[in-house]
Sequence to fold (91 residues):
Amino acid sequence: MLAASVEGDGANGDENEGDVELKGSIAAGSIGGSFASNSLSFSINSTQVKTNASIQFKDTSCASLKAGDSVEVKGSRQADASVLATRAHRP
Fold:
């Protein structure tokens, strides 16, 4: 499954500029880092998603995520075009 949607806000100077929502499946071979060190990363379609200690998981946990899982991620676009996730859950 490819990303069903990628949404962004802030094009008109909103205070939430850079907010992004991704929906899709975790790409095979894209999971890296470690949930123990709060540095998990993975890709949804071609967008890299990064996590840190502030992420909130709903209906899943960091340790249970695997390639092929459908997820919805909210976060902020970074300078390197990745998304720093603030929330993640399974639809």
